Amino acid sequence: MTDMNMRANATRNFPGRTYRFYTGKSIYEFGHGLSYSTFSKFIISAPSTILIKPITTTTHQPPNTLTSTTTNGQAINISTINCQNLQFQVNVGVKNHGEIDGPHVVLVFWKPASSQGVTGIPNVQLVGFERVVVKREKTEMVTVELDVCKDLSVADGDGKRKLITGQHALVIGSSSERQVKHHFNIRVANSEDQGSLTCM
């Protein structure tokens, strides 16, 4: 095997590799598993809007257009963004519908917004997971912590990390189970915005 590309290429009829880029038909999806019990999940809380702000120090003023008029799909270099306080929690409820106690692994996937400024964006990416034991007919809460700049950025052709504005999605669970989706927006903050996160 000499072709080490990961991303799909339709001109060569190449479906891509790994769960992040594969576009073909799968026998077992990434995260597929079996259990003696049946679980369902629901989102308790997660941000609906994430506001990004430029770095304001005089020692870091690269030329960019990080303003409140930034359009959806713009890829912004994270070195120009103030990444402090851009961490958030996703709280997920897990209910055991079975007759026995059982463990369950909550998988949190991220579907990035599309952008013409970055090619080869992954279709989906695992950004967090937590294991929980839920007693029969009971519900437990799982918390997954995410960092916007580290977990929700993509690499461009030069290897620079970029944050894409627009609508993103968090997908709870693998495709072999009932998935729960949560949509949120990443946008540039304006002068009237307070804080960095707006929760659902």
From TrEMBL:
Residue ranges of every copy of the Fibronectin type III-like domain listed in the record: 104-176
InterPro entries listed in its UniProt record: BXL, Fn3-like, Ig-like_fold
Residue ranges that the Swiss-Prot or TrEMBL entry lists as coiled coil: none
Superkingdom per UniProt: Eukaryota
Family note: Belongs to the glycosyl hydrolase 3 family.
Protein name (Swiss-Prot/TrEMBL): Fibronectin type III-like domain-containing protein
Organism: Ilex paraguariensis (yerba mate)
